[in-house]
Fold this protein.
Amino acid sequence: MTTTASDLTFRLEQKRNVQADFPGPKSVALTERRKSVVAAGVASSVPVYVADADGGIIHDVDGNSFIDLGSGIAVTSVGASDPAVVGAVKEAVEHFTHTCFMVTPYEGYVAVAEQLNRLTPGNHEKRTVLFNSGAEAVENAIKVARLATGRDAVVAFDHAYHGRTNLTMALTAKAMPYKTNFGPFAPEVYRMPMSYPYREENPAITGAEAAKRAITMIEKQIGGDQVAAIIIEPIQGEGGFIVPAEGFLPALAAWAKEKGIVFIADEVQSGFCRTGEWFAVNHEGVVPDILTMAKGIAGGMPLSAITGRADLLDAVHPGGLGGTYGGNPVACAACAGFDRVHGGVRPERPCPPHRIHRHGAPARTAGRTGRRRHRRDR
Ligand SMILES: Cc1ncc(COP(=O)(O)O)c(C=O)c1O
């Protein structure tokens, strides 16, 4: 049975209560302490230190409580310390915290792979690999695409964000703070214009026309038969919350298919109900060759995944994919706990909107990352 909003109970009162002397003395002292031990390059948006969190509320060390609109950058979408997630994690920890799936495998990993293969779009045969972070998932999706196609070039888009590792910095568009002085970057990455209805020079341009513009540039500057992968956030989440014009994603995906290019949807941020569908590509019925997922997948435990066409993922030689902690058993249990929160993750089940609204909005905005038409008022 699916939980409804009125069934929810919380350990902490779901109320904002901020004192006048914010940030309080304990947070100020921690900020001072931090300065001499934590690298300056790690910035925090809010000048308070967390003592506890539950549902959509964070309590700080000075007794203030805040509505958690950040949700750990689009992560705690079922709320902080949700009992189903916490219970699953506790149970797992009491048995074993780690063995490394590549050395001594366990069922939790296989169960998450089954769950993701079922949940992601398309009825084709799929395979899944688990990792720790979104960037790691993106890196591995590109590795698979290059190996499977025997091609080098990768196409990314204006305003894209894909992570902070060397290859994902190359894929990311914004220089400051992500790339400035961190180069040289991975080669064979090409950037193409995004469909951006709010700021298009020609406001009348359709999604199909915007796709044609990008495709023409790819053909001219790279050659379609040289491209291993097109990677795109179906709704961008860092360069602004950018919803491409309707028709843009289907036209790109169709052209990629025609050219044998692997179409990768980076759903690290937009996946797991952030847009009102399990995945943002579902809004237009696009079936990617590979999906990258992280963030909301495991209620805050570090887990990421790539799920894609079996022929692509099985093309990689044994040992070519993996990592020490990828698909850690506790993180896999948290993912299973998340499944219980939703009353069983099934693609045919709608996203539970009460959870989305009740437990904090997506990262970097107070609104939902939805497919809304943009008003042009610049
Ligand atoms: C679309 C997208 N891809 C990749 C990443 C990188 O994820 P992580 O920070 O877990 O490496 C992010 C993180 O914000 C993201 O939004």
